[in-house]
Amino acid sequence: MASNFGILAKLDFLQTITSNLIAGVNPAIIHNIGKYMALKKVHYLTCVEHLEGDYLEFGVFTGSSFTHSIRCSKKMEKIFPGINDCNFYGYDSFEGFGDIEESDIHSFYTDENFATNYKMVSKRVKKAAGKFNYKLIKGFFNDTLKNGALSDGISKSRVIFIDSDTYSSSKEALNYCLPTIQIGTYIVLDDFFSYKGVETRGVAKAFNEFIEVGGFSSRKVMDYGMGGSVFVISYM
Question: Terminal CA-to-CA distance of the chain, rounded, Å?
Fold first, then answer.
C-alpha cells in the first residue's frame, strides 16, 4: 500500500508550484527571515544563561537588524525580567565603505548598494527602542573603533553582530570587541561565505584570525539565510 508521502511526491504539479514559489522569492527576503530567526535564537539563549553584557552591531545599514534585536529583547524581558540592562551599540559610516583595500573588492559591496540615511535610521531605532538604552556611532571604523571597546565604556559583550562585509572592516570590529569577550558571547557573521567561500578572505578570514589571536574556542550554532553563520565562544 502506497503511503501518502509517496503519492504526494509523484504529483509533479505540486512540486512545480512549490518550486516556482520558492524560486520567485527575493533572496534578500529569505536571508532576512533567516537572520531574524538567528537573532531571536541568540537573544533567547543569552537570556536563558543570564549572560551579562551588551549588544554590538557593526554595519547597521537601514537599522532593520538593530531594531529587531531590540524587539527580541523586549519580548524576552517578559520571560526573563531584567535583561533590559543590556545596552545596544550600532556602528556604521552610513555612507558605504569608503576607500577599501584591493583584496576587499567585491562587485556587491559598493557604496552605491550600502549607503543609507543616518537621520532616517536614527528615527527608526528611536521608535523601536522605548526604554532600552542604545547608541548609534556614525563614522568609518578606523576612526570610531580605534580606542577599543573598554575606552568606550563597554566591558562585556553579550551578542556581536558583524554585518560589515569585508575583511578589513570585520577585523577592525572584532579587534574592537576583543577585551569584551566572555564564555557565552554569541557572534553573528552575516556574510561568512562571501568571496566564493574562500576562508582566507572576507569575514571568514577576520573571524579565524580573531579566534587565533584571542586564544578562544568557538562552536558553530547555526547557518542562516543566504550565507550567514552564528558562533558561540565556548572556551577562553
Answer: 57
* CATH at 114: 3.40.50.150
Using alpha carbons, select from 188, 189, 178, 185 the residue that is nearest to residue 215.
Answer: 178
The grid cell for 225 is 539565510
What is Dmax (Cα atoms) for the chain? Answer: 70
What is the rounded CA–CA span in Å between residue 96 and residue 141? 11
How would you list the strands of the sheet with 134-138, edge to edge?
A: 134-138, 88-92, 54-58, 157-162, 186-189, 228-235, 217-224
- 1 domain residue, yes or no: no
In a domain, 21, yes or no: no
Q: How many domains does the chain have?
A: 1
- For the stretch 3-57, pLDDT in tens is 555 665 666 878 888 889 989 999 889 989 999 999 999 999 999 898 999 999 9
Prediction pTM value = 0.88
In a domain, 201, yes or no: yes
- Taking the C-alpha atoms of residue 65 and residue 177, their distance in angstroms, rounded to an integer, is 19
Quick one: cell of 41?
Answer: 535564537
Range of 73's domain? 26-235
Report if residue 15 sits inside a domain: no
